[in-house]
Amino acid sequence: MKEKGASFPKSFVSSSTEDTIEFGKKFGFFINTLPTTKGARIVSLCGDLGAGKTTLTKGVALAFGIKKKITSPTFVLMKRFPTKTHYSTLVHIDAYRLSSFKDLHSLEIEKILNDSHSIILIEWIKNISSKKIKPFCVVTLKHKKDRTRLITTKIKK
Ligand SMILES: Nc1ncnc2c1ncn2[C@@H]1O[C@H](COP(=O)(O)OP(=O)(O)O)[C@@H](O)[C@H]1O
Ligand SMILES: [Mg+2]
């Protein structure tokens, strides 16, 4: 599931839901070109409610060949999807209703964080801030007007 020379713009203006999904797909192909590291790879998705974090995750899931529908995990907190790439599990967490890292304990979070074959996308990471959750990349979505969103990505060294 790799795309030749997978690349994505660091800053992108999305004009529609489809644009954001397409961006997520490119971003997902990029993640798939990265080697696994010690522990899971974590992506922080920042932006207000309705900015498009879950929509972008849909695109990432497509790049991983996931056919299941991605919906907001707000009420279930976390969803796990098997993939066919070297990142064999994609985990989508929505921490909107959480208030600390401890709230994730019942979800086997330690096991997931230690799994170098997991890629974890987290919405509202600030609600569960912990030394154990270190994103390698922060994607920020800003709701401009109507359907316009400014998407910026920052890869941490
Ligand atoms: N350019 C755009 N990018 C992303 N979503 C958009 C865009 N324009 C309109 N939307 C709509 O805004 C909503 C974003 O919802 P969602 O992705 O669940 O946001 P979040 O997860 O950040 O709360 C969806 O209903 C989507 O169809
Ligand atoms: Mg969401």
Radius of gyration: 14 Å
Q: Helical stretch count?
A: 3
What's the level 1 CATH class?
Answer: Alpha Beta
The CATH H-level superfamily is: P-loop containing nucleotide triphosphate hydrolases
At the third CATH level, what is the topology name? Rossmann fold
Query: Assembly state here?
Result: single chain
Provide the list of bound ligands, each named once.
Answer: adenosine-5'-diphosphate, magnesium ion
Low-confidence stretches: none
Number of strands: 7
Secondary-structure-derived class:
alpha/beta
Kindly report the spatial arrangement of strands forming the biggest sheet: 1-7-6-2-5-4-3
* Helix percentage range: 10-25%
**End-to-end separation:** 25 Å
Secondary structure layout:
Layout: E1 11-14, H1 17-33, E2 41-46, H2 53-63, E3 78-82, E4 89-94, H3 109-114, E5 118-123, E6 137-143, E7 149-155
Parallel strand pairs: 2-5, 2-6, 4-5
Antiparallel strand pairs: 1-7, 3-4, 6-7
Helix pairs in contact: 1-2
Bound molecules: adenosine-5'-diphosphate (ADP) and magnesium ion.
Magnesium ion (MG) binds next to helix 2.
Structure description:
By secondary structure, this protein is α/β, with parallel strands linked by helices. It has a single domain (12-148), classed as 3-Layer(aba) Sandwich (Rossmann fold). Helix content is 22%, strand content 26%. The protein contains three helices and seven strands. The chain has helices at residues 17-33, 53-63, 109-114; strands at 11-14, 41-46, 78-82, 89-94, 118-123, 137-143, 149-155. Strands 1-7-6-2-5-4-3 form a seven-stranded mixed β-sheet. The chain is globular and about 40 Å long. It starts with 10 loop residues before the first strand and ends with a strand. The model has no long low-confidence stretch (mean pLDDT 92). It binds adenosine-5'-diphosphate (ADP) and magnesium ion. Residues 53-54, 72, 94, 123 line the site of magnesium ion.
